[in-house]
Amino acid sequence: MTSQMDHKGPRAGVNHSRIVIADDHPLFRVALVQILDAPSDLKVVGEATDGRQALELCRRLDPDLVLMDISMPVMGGVEATRAIKDEFPKTGVLMLTAHAEHRLLVEAVKAGAAGYLLKGCHPDHVLDAVRRILGGGTHLDQELAMHVIRDLVIGHVQESAQASGVPPDKFRRPPLLSQPLTYRELEVLKLLAQGWTNREIARELLVSVSTVKAYVQRIIAKLEVSDRTQAAVKATELGILSAER
């Protein structure tokens, strides 16, 4: 029976982000540890060979981020992500997969994953994705991001139509917002929906990071959602964002 591995280290006073790796391939885990332990601001604190072990490590180690293989024995990555986000909503999850299939990405996002990373990518891309999520952003492949939002919206409309007994093509969108978004908030929302971090949005719009954070909080409040991904989904559902690239 495989065992989970803890990379011991004190929690109090650390100045690095704590990461757990969950993948059933030892060589891939070794490679990820080498990539992620190299920078001084990151630290791999545990390794798991299946989703259940990943959940147990989260309970013991309280990591900032989990790199989660989508296909594992015992408990798969999507199921494990859902369980981890239920217990530890502040822990980010970056999904790892060998398949560039947008329907897998939809399931991962619905489960609470903040990003999706292909296993064949360059090590620098891994570090960029990790830092995006640790910085409060998302990491969705640009070509797949709007597919995800569109599929989530279509699924929501179908579920709502079924619950109300109305055919999906006759189902009306929810009413418009009671507090409309400003032009600047719309600019931020469009970039947010593409997975940009607050810092990247700040550079693009020539404002401070704190200003972007304030915009994001207002957007979430006006859309009456709980996070950035759901803000993009709700905006698309209302027709605020186009589902086309």
Can you describe this structure?
The chain has 245 residues and is α/β, with parallel strands linked by helices. It has two domains: 5-139, 3-Layer(aba) Sandwich (Rossmann fold); 165-237, Arc Repressor Mutant, subunit A (Orthogonal Bundle). It has helices spanning 26-37, 51-61, 77-87, 102-111, 123-134, 142-164, 183-193, 198-205, 209-223, 228-237, and strands at 5-6, 17-22, 42-48, 65-69, 92-97, 115-118. A six-stranded mixed β-sheet has the order 1-3-2-4-5-6, sandwiched between helices. Strand 4, helix 3 (77-87) and strand 5 (92-97) form a beta-alpha-beta unit. Helix 6 (142-164) packs across helix 10 and helix 7 (183-193) crosses helix 10. It starts with a strand and ends in an 8-residue tail after the last helix.
Which word captures the global form? globular
Q: What's the main sheet like?
A: 6 strands, mixed
What distance lies between the first and last C-alpha atoms, to the nearest angstrom? 47 Å
Count of helical regions: 10
The CATH class name of the largest domain reads: Alpha Beta
Q: Mean pLDDT, nearest integer? A: 80
Q: By CATH's scheme, which homologous superfamily of the largest domain applies?
A: Response regulator
**What topology, given as strand order, has the largest sheet?**
1-3-2-4-5-6
In percent, how much strand structure appears in the residues? 5-15%
Strand count: 6
The low-confidence parts are 168-174
Instruction: Report the helical percentage.
Output: 40-55%
What are the salient characteristics of this protein?
245 residues; alpha/beta; Rossmann fold; Arc Repressor Mutant, subunit A; 2 domains; six-stranded mixed β-sheet; 10 helices; globular
